[in-house]
Amino acid sequence: MDDVYVTGLGVVCCLGTGVDRFWRGMAAARSSPVPTTDPYAHVTVPLLYAVPSKDRPGADSGWGSTTHLAVAAAEQAVADAGLSLTAQDGMAVVVGTGMGDADRHETWRLAGFPQDDRWIPGFAVGSTVAGRLGATGAVITVSNACAAGGCAVSMAADLVRTGEATVAVAVGAEAYSRVALACFDRLGALDPRECRPFSRDRRGTVFGEGAAALVLESAAQADRRPPATRYARLAGAGWSCDAYHPTAPEPDGTQIVRAMVAALAEAGATADQLGCLVPHGTGTELNDRTESEAVHTALGARAVDLPLYSLKALIGHTGGAAGAMAAVAATLIVHHGTVPGNVPLGEQDPDCKVWLPMAAVPVAGRYTMLNAYAFGGNNISLVLERAA
Amino acid sequence: MTAGVAISGVALVRPAGARWTADGHRASPPPDWFDYRRELGQRGYKYVPEAYRYLLAAARRALAEAGYPQPDAAPEDGGLVVGTNSAVARLHADMDRTVVAGSAADLSPATAPYFSINLGGGRLATEYAIKGYHATLTTPRVAGLEAIAVAARALALERARWMLVGATEERLDGAEPAAGLSESGAVALVAHADAAAPPGSARCRVHLRYLPPDSPVGPVLAAVLAAADAHGDLPVVAVLDGSPLGTAIAAELPGRARVVPAGAGCLEPLMQVAALLVDAAEPTVVVTAAAEGNLAVALVCPSPDQ
């Protein structure tokens, strides 16, 4: 099977639009959530790392907000890869989203549904993205909650790896949903101040909005059309399921350890060759502690001085987009050879024995790993390798 | 090369004698058509959404038929791929009204986790200790057939040794357009890597494509049908709606296809596959498409021994 390379990137999040802005935002390490503008969000913690209104394209198209964000990120990524926005024979699209265009149905429930003789599905994000890109291959939507974006990247890579697609666009996308916010609020899983993964004072997570896209191509396909940039090789993926509890992680982290170990094995890498880890790190008490311990179990001595880049402290928890956001961040870390300094969040939890550098450090290793976990016990780890 | 799967267990949970009304909608099944306490047990399912009760019941039957999970197999060997479009659509509507009229504090903490559409699969994984590959797919109309394709690829890449593949839907909230097209029920299949299955196994292979808006249907459909059925002589079941794409596909299959009206979600196409696996005497092609452009074609080969 052929190697799979990342040749294009796109992103929209609370930092704004575009990969350059995203990378500069990572370097600046400053952000804060804002109150949601939804007057019907009757919750105790109405905070959100929202996409700025100027970065919400085409609000009059009738699409839901998640589709808007997904299309924007996918079009950036395809342009970045040097592909044209015309019919792409055999191009596949895999979208990861937990809630789809839930906000559109939430709006309709208050304003009235459109007259239609067919049901309007909430998860047509991938279809719209494919239509915009002229894709004609498989179009798949995966909704593994907060792991969905990472799963989409792996599934897209598998389509390329098996030869079912020459090019695949993986997208993770999630916009604000009143229902999702309210359910997290009811479960007491929201931090009233900000998203503070691994902080001693963390109280839960804070949602963010956004979309991230990666163009994945086989080495042979990328060779056929220079000068495609090879940002990184998507070297390995590890999937597992806790099969333990609807919302809580398996306390001993057995399955998240297994996902990390499997991803390294598929990449043909060892823990010593890792230069950075982008953790799932949501800011919820149990999740961060379990992941910290699992990192040590999975990576052994390398975990002691392995730099972690905690993305959700900067852009919030983007739900179904989070794994793809982490994949874009990890790709940029691999590509630039630098782990940006983490967002300062006060004292680190002594029970979370991981290294979160506060200033940029060089990537000392060929490989970077990312984790994405979800309600339902879905886990995925991905490994990216510096392109030769 | 599109991978296929071998099937060793098939179960359908659906209202008996599902009917259509004169205006093309599905007749509502009787409210007592599915007794979850009888199917699943007296305790533990009160707060589980209907769609996931159907899925759990179908999975229970399919796994029993296939003898899975095998007692000596590692939990990590098993995987799970579930397709659904509307499993929590009605739950979301109920939750949303509760929050708008009151507050999040009025939500049931037992029900709140189920806002996440993958929780049905999570519950299923927990009940049967299925700890390998796990995906919940939501692509309009094709997610059920897509589950077979995704499972086949994951099995071929050895991300699991066996897979539970399913689809489930439940009735829509009455305020939604075309709620009369609601589907209720579930399908579950136990699947294995095609290459590793014993001779005589029932098999299925699914091809996926996307048709951009206003693109010609004929050439793409012909190519996908040819990939599934090289000689073009197998019977075809087409699960289609009245959208422009559904109408165009029906027009491309004059006299060849038995057309079955699609419901709102992704259940009916996989129901057709399951029924063919159980009853058909010969290989059959199942075609379905979403108004949004998603196309899926399945080649269903029942076991010659049945």
Topology of helices and strands:
The complex is a heterodimer of chains A (388) and B (306).
Chain A: E1 4-13, E2 16-17, H1 19-28, E3 34-35, E4 47-48, H2 65-80, E5 92-96, H3 102-111, H4 125-133, E6 139-142, H5 148-161, E7 167-174, H6 178-186, E8 210-218, H7 219-224, E9 232-241, H8 254-267, E10 274-278, H9 285-299, H10 312-315, H11 322-336, E11 338-339, E12 361-362, E13 367-373, E14 378-386
Parallel strand pairs in A: 5-6, 5-7, 10-13
Antiparallel strand pairs in A: 1-2, 1-8, 1-9, 3-4, 7-8, 9-14, 11-12, 13-14
Chain B: E1 4-13, H1 36-40, H2 50-66, E2 78-83, H3 89-101, H4 119-128, E3 134-137, H5 143-156, E4 162-169, E5 185-193, E6 202-210, H6 217-228, E7 236-240, H7 244-252, E8 257-261, H8 267-279, E9 284-289, E10 294-301
Parallel strand pairs in B: 2-3, 2-4, 7-8, 7-9
Antiparallel strand pairs in B: 1-5, 1-6, 4-5, 6-10, 9-10
Helix pairs in contact in B: 2-4
Notable characteristics:
heterodimer, A: 388 residues, alpha+beta, Peroxisomal Thiolase, Chain A, domain 1, 2 domains, ten-stranded mixed β-sheet, two-stranded antiparallel ribbon, 11 helices, 14 strands, 20% strand, globular, B: 306 residues, alpha/beta, 8 helices, 10 strands, 30% helix
